């Protein structure tokens, strides 16, 4: 859906590492726990077709093929999130007045998450959100209301697409594979340490 990689686009000015670090949807394990838990959610609508990202099946996305599949990236970030060998490939796309900041996440070369941030030079209008949502409805859930903005969708393979509407509009993708199932088991029930608990654990190791 919404494939902009192959379209003509104005080359966006370069941004530095701090920009991409701030834009990383997975800042810490607490945030990732909320994201990965969508794989086991019972509140998901069933898609009429298998979920794809930029026309590519989620199980076919590999880090080694990123350039051939998506073109030259805007930046590669290697964040310290607690996820092993975590890399994030960023792509900045412009289409008329709309902007898209795409991030594709890999661990040990395997794809496990993608997010597409939709925004504009001004505040993203409800009309623009509706245009994007219409694409989701037509491809995955034609029975949904034409006013629907929020989506939580699972396909027959267990892949998940969910959106977040908060100032910007995010379309998020989770493949259902061995890696994401292992990450779900490892981080899905993560509980943030109580105040002072992490300090006590550090002191216990050091003293």
Could you list the spans in which at least 5 consecutive residues all have pLDDT below 50?
A: 1-11
Give the rounded overall mean pLDDT: 89
Please report which band the strand proportion falls in: under 5%, 5-15%, 15-25%, 25-35%, 35-45% or over 45%: 25-35%
Radius of gyration: 18 Å
Number of helices: 6
Give a count of the beta strands, DSSP E runs of length 2 or more: 10
Find the structural class using helix and strand composition: alpha+beta
Helix content: 25-40%
Number of domains: 1
Alpha-carbon distance between the two ends:
54 Å
Numbering strands along the chain, what is their spatial order in the largest sheet?
A: 1-8-9-10-7-6-5-4
Order of helices and strands: HHEEEHEEEEHEEEHH
Largest sheet: 8 strands, mixed
Task: Write a brief structural summary.
The chain has helices at residues 17-23, 29-36, 66-70, 126-140, 178-187, 197-206, and strands at 45-46, 52-53, 56-57, 75-77, 86-95, 98-107, 110-120, 152-154, 160-166, 168-174. Helix 2 crosses helix 5 (178-187).
Word description of this protein:
With 207 residues, the chain is of the alpha+beta class. The protein has one domain. Helices cover 27% and strands 28% of the residues. It has helices at residues 17-23, 29-36, 66-70, 126-140, 178-187, 197-206; strands at residues 45-46, 52-53, 56-57, 75-77, 86-95, 98-107, 110-120, 152-154, 160-166, 168-174. It has an 8-stranded mixed β-sheet with strand order 1-8-9-10-7-6-5-4, with helices on both faces. A two-stranded antiparallel ribbon has the order 2-3. It is globular and about 60 Å long. Residues 1-11 have low confidence and may be disordered.
